[in-house]
Amino acid sequence: MKVFYKYIDKFESFFLRKEVLVFLLICFSGILIYKRIIWDKGVSPLIQSDSQIKLYQTIEYKIHGLNSHSCYLLDNSIDTQFEFYPFRYPWAFFSTNEVGNKTCVFQYPSFFSQFFSLLPFKYQFFNLIILLLYLFVCLVLIFSLKYILNLKSLEYALLCGVFFLVGYGITSAFEFSESVPAHLFLSIWFFAVLAIDLNKIIPNYLMFLIGFVGGISIFLRSESIIYIGITGLVSVYFYRNDFLVLIKKYFFLFIGLLFSILLFAYYNESQFGEIFGVRSKISLIDFTRLNFTERSHLVKEFFIGNENRIGFLFYCFPSISFFVYSVFKTEFSIIQKKVLSITVLSFVCIVLLSPYSSGGLYAGMRFTEFSYLLITIYACITIVSEKDVSKRRIFVLFVLLQIFLGIYHVRKNIRNLDYIKKYHEIYQSKLDEFPEAPVLHLSTFDLLLISDSFLKKPHWIVNHQKKFEMMEEKLREKGISRFQVFVYDFVPPKDDNVTDEFYKEWINTKFEIKSKYYEKQRDEKIAGFRLMLWKMK
C-alpha cells in the first residue's frame, strides 16, 4: 500500500506543477481554437440547429435595426403571412397583430443577437468569439479563486481551471450560444458574493455594476434566475441572525441586480409583451403540458443519457465521488457550506423544473452548465481548506480523474463535430451549386443543417402535397425555373421536447412530390438525406 501511495504522490506532484498546468491550459486552448477555425472554414461555417436561428436573428437586427424583431426572411414576396416559413416550434413564435397580419419572432433572447449585430465582424467569426469568451471565463475563474482564497501560488487554481475547461459546459462553447456570455456574467456576480462573504473590499460602484451584469444573465439564460435566487435564499439563511449585516453587505450588489432586472424587463414588456421575453412564454406553456411520467423521463435521461447523449452520472462520477467523500470526511467552513448548499439546491431545482430534455450535442446537460462551474469552485475551496494531507491527496486524485474523463468526453464531442462538418460541407456545396434555386423542405427535421444557406437564398417548408401545390403555383407565377428539395430519407427520431401532434404535423411528414409544372432532374442521397433538383417543364 505504501508503494501505491508513493506512486500516487508522484503522479499528483507532476500534475500539480505550475508549468505542467499552464502547458495543459495552453495546449487545450490551442486545440479548441484550431478546431473552431477548421470547422468555420470551407463553403460554410459550422452553424447548426439552435445556433443558426440566433445567427438569423442577429442578421435581421444588423440589416433592419435593433427594433426589428421579426423572423429573418430573405424574400417575403412569396410568403407574406409566414405560411411556408420553414422554422416552427421551438424556434419561432407566431401570432396575429391588430390588423390581422401574421407575425413571427424567434424565441431566443434578443439582447444576445442585438449585441452581436453591433460587432464589426463577419458572422463567420461569431463561433470563434464565443469560444474565446469561454476561455476568458476560465481565466476569470482562475484569478478569482486566487483572489478570494488568498492563494500564494496558482497551482490549485490552475488545476481547477483545467478541470473547468474540459467540463460539459464546453458544449455551449462549440456553438453560437448565449450560454457562454450568461455564464461569464453569472460567474462574475457569484465571485462577488463570495468575495463579500470573505470580507474582501469591493467599491460600491463596482458592486452595483456587478449586480447589473448579474441581472443581464437572467435575460440571456432563464435558469440564471434559479442560480441567483438560490444564492439569495441561502445567504438569507446564513445571515438569519444578522439580517441588517446582510443588507449592509449586499446592498449595492442587490440594487444593481434589481435595476438591471427592472430595466430589461420593461424593455421586453414593451417590445414583446413578456417581461422575460418570448422564451419565457413558450417555456411556461411547455412546463404546464408535462405530466409526471414525462418529467420523470426527462430527469432519467439527464442522469443516464440516451443513445445520442452522455448523461451526468457518466460524465461526472469523479466529481460526484468528490462531493460524497467531502460530505463524510471533511469539517466544513462556513463558505464551504454555503457553496455546497447553493450548488446542490440550484442543480436539483433546475433538473426537476426544466420542461425540456437537455440539449447540447454529445453532452446533453446544457441547463446545468453553470452548476459545473460551481462544482469547480467548491472543489478548489475544499482542496485548499483541507489540512489533512492524505484527504487532500484523495481530493486532488478525484479532480485529476475528472480531468482525464473530461478529456475523453471532449474528444468524443470533437469527433462528432468533425463528422457533422464533413457532411455539412457537402450539403452546403450542393445547395450553393444552384444559387438561384430556392429550397423546399418537407419536414422541420431537415432544417438542422441548412446553416447560412438561409441567408443566401429562400427556404420554405411544404409539409404535405396540397401545401406543395400552393407553393409551386407561386413559384410558377414568379417565373422561378427550378428549385431544390432537401429531405431526411428515413423516419425522423421523435424529440422529447415536442408533442405527438407536432411530430405528426411538422416532423414525420416526408412524401413523394407530384408536380404539375416541374419535373425532377436530380435525385441523390447523402448520409441519410435526399437532395433533389426540379426544373420547370
Descriptive account of the structure:
This protein is α/β, with parallel strands linked by helices. The model has no long low-confidence stretch (mean pLDDT 88). The protein contains 20 helices and 7 strands. The longest helix has 44 residues. A 5-stranded mixed beta sheet has the order 4-3-5-7-6. Strands 1-2 form a two-stranded antiparallel sheet. A hairpin with a 2-residue loop joins strand 6 and strand 7. The chain is 61% helix and 7% strand. Helix 2 runs antiparallel to helix 5 and helix 16 runs antiparallel to helix 17.
SSE topology:
Layout: H1 2-15, H2 18-40, H3 50-64, E1 92-96, E2 102-106, H4 110-117, H5 126-148, H6 155-165, H7 170-173, H8 179-197, H9 204-220, H10 224-238, H11 243-272, H12 278-289, H13 292-304, H14 312-329, H15 334-353, H16 369-385, H17 389-432, E3 439-441, H18 453-456, E4 459-461, H19 465-477, E5 482-488, H20 500-507, E6 518-526, E7 529-536
Parallel strand pairs: 3-4, 3-5
Antiparallel strand pairs: 1-2, 5-7, 6-7
User: How is the main sheet built?
Assistant: 5 strands, mixed
Mean pLDDT: 88
Terminus-to-terminus distance = 82 Å
Major beta sheet, strand line-up: 4-3-5-7-6
- Identify low-pLDDT runs: none
Q: What is the succession of H and E elements?
A: HHHEEHHHHHHHHHHHHHHEHEHEHEE
The number of distinct β-strands equals 7
User: Assembly state here?
Assistant: single chain
Structural class: alpha/beta
InterPro entries: LA3751_2-like
Keywords: Membrane, Transmembrane, Transmembrane helix
Transmembrane segments: 20-39, 125-149, 156-174, 180-198, 205-220, 226-243, 250-267, 310-328, 340-358, 393-410
Protein name: Glycosyltransferase RgtA/B/C/D-like domain-containing protein
